[in-house]
Amino acid sequence: MEKRVTFKGWLLPLCLIAPQVIVSAIFFFYPAAQAVWQSLFIPDPFGLSMQWVGLGNFEYLLSDPYYRASFLTTGIFSILVTLVSMIPALFLAVVADRLIKGAGAYRTMLIWPYAVAPAIAGVLWLFMFNTRVGVVSWYLGNLGYDWNHVLNGNEAMGLVVVSSSWGRISYNFLFFFAALQSVPKSVIEAAAIDGARFWKRFWTIVLPLLSPTTFFLLVVNIVYAFFETFGVIHTITAGGPQQSTTILVYKVFSDGFVGQDLGSSAAQSVILLVVVGALTIFQFKFVERRVHY
Amino acid sequence: MTHSAAKRRKEPAPGMVEKRGLGLWFTHAIMIFGVLIVFFPIWLAFVASTITQPEIVSPPMPLWPGDQFFTNYKKALFSGVNVPVATMLFNSLVMAIGIAFGKIVISLLSAFAIVYFKFPGKMIFFWLIFLTLMLPVEVRIVPTYQVVAGFGMLNSYGGLILPLIASATATFLFRQFFMTVPDELAEAARVDGARPMRFFWDILFPMSRTNIAALFVILFIYGWNQYLWPLLITTDPEMNTIVMGIKQMFPSGDDVADWPVIMATSILAMIPPVIVVVSMQKLFIRGLVDSEK
User: Of B63, B78, B93, which residue constitutes the final position of a domain?
Assistant: First the structure.
């Protein structure tokens, strides 16, 4: 992963990289360091002084059943969101790629939800499934199914997964479709002449050529499910019922800003920092070797 | 001659790779079905924004638009619930453009430095930047909030924008793209005695136009769709962005939400990003075609 041809000099590249490093230092690494520091203290109720507790916040967190449950919730949630958003997108992209005419029109329509904010998506889906005025919940009620995501944790999870995945289908579709369009037609035709059927071509040619896109999408979708779905959860369930949709990021927010438990919130940030840092390195090292560039 | 060759390449022998006849209709049917499902929540929101409150609160609501379009949108835009939606739209616009522009500039420069130079500490800088990809602002909200408050940037555009450009999505993408640029170009530039920045402006930057356009779409949407961060730092309703402002329009307690105005606001919140996506899509496609020639 190195360029053979590089330019000489070290002052220029340092200047080029400086803006990003400075902004990251002030708004990323300094706050991250602060999070580490604050996680070692418990502030008194008036915020006047801090008491050193060492790893006390972490010990407390890791023995807290609510925090452990939140870990599991986040895992289930992010796996479901990644699958529910990537599989239909790949399917639609493969189907659209087989059209000579009209694929562009479908794409124009399919990318709309991509432009819709997670929080707005939350409002739209909440409106459809609202227990009092929702159209879908009303029809479900007529069919004999009593939809109530306000009380039922599984239904709440299903609703936030679908709402979070909805806009991502467009996003993933856009990337898969662009990647499919850039697969050289001559390669596909050569395989077709050699008698390879559609699925054979798909598994042996198209999918390997899509692997950089898939890798990129895998990373960004997991990141999305972890961090950017806050709006969906805040608008639809606010973490409930009984914390069944409280993902880790939501818990950092609700403990830190609503509960004002700064020490615990900071400790949770640090745990997230470690988990995700490890995930990044693992994924980058592990996946990059296997993908075709 | 080249023209006909290009044409032949784009239109392969019929029936070999693309679908024809019955299969073609089936393919279209799948796409239409997909589009309808994906579109339904938006359609429902639009319908809700054109009817009256009593029509919504006695389910099922109609599935065809009513005649209250101007009433509802006028009420949303110029009075809203807490603050006129027009104000929130403006705030969102400033934030989204600021983030997209800022990120593209710092990422282009840092990706150029990382890919085309060897300098001390390069891999450390690369990993430091890459780490920020995985840890968006949501993880370190409390300390970042304190940093921004310390700079006196609460309720300001700087406070809305700067912490969010400290992320590596764009750097990651530009790095991937620069890695695919043939080494011969840099070699030729170096042999011709071109300075690095000359190579950047004359060759790399024009080649990146398509990626920049694609990235602008992504980042504009990213900025527009921010929820948690504006929720924390804009305590003054005059600085609210539209995406976070919608949740504030829901009444607390048992009051019934003003659904027509909320849904009109949801539609208004979608329009600018949809315009960006659809208009930039043309640029995106033209870029793809250009690079294929």
Answer: B78
Q: Which domains does chain A carry?
A: 64-260 (1.10.3720.10)
A positions 89-108 inside 8 Å of B (CB) = 92, 95-96, 98-100, 102, 104, 106-108
Q: Name the residue of chain A whose CA is nearest to B285's CA.
A: A178
* Cβ atoms of B170 and B219 closer than 8 Å: yes
Chain B residues near residue A216 by CB distance under 8 angstroms: 173, 176
Owning domain of residue B30: 18-78
A30 interaction partners in chain B (CB closer than 8 Å): 143, 147
pLDDT tens digits for B245-293? 888 888 876 677 889 999 999 999 999 988 887 777 766 554 333 333 2
Q: What is the pLDDT of residue B137?
A: 65
Whether residue B29 sits in one domain with residue B150: no
Q: What number is the average pLDDT over the span B38-44?
A: 91
Tell me the pLDDT tens digit for each residue of A174-233: 888 888 888 888 888 888 888 888 888 888 888 888 887 888 788 778 878 887 888 999
> What is the secondary structure of B123-190 as a DSSP string?
HHHHHHHHHHHH--GGGGHHHHHHHHHHTT-TTSHHHHHGGGG---HHHHHHHHHHHHS-HHHHHHHH
- Give B131-174 pLDDT, tens digit per residue: 776 666 666 788 888 889 988 889 999 999 988 887 677 787 78
The minimum CA-CA distance between A19 and chain B, rounded to whole Å, is: 6
Q: What pLDDT is stored for residue A90 in this prediction? A: 93
Please report, to the nearest 10 degrees, the dihedral formed by the alpha carbons of residues B29, B32, B38, B41 taken in order. -120
Which residues in chain A have Cβ-Cβ distances shorter than 8 Å to B165? 23
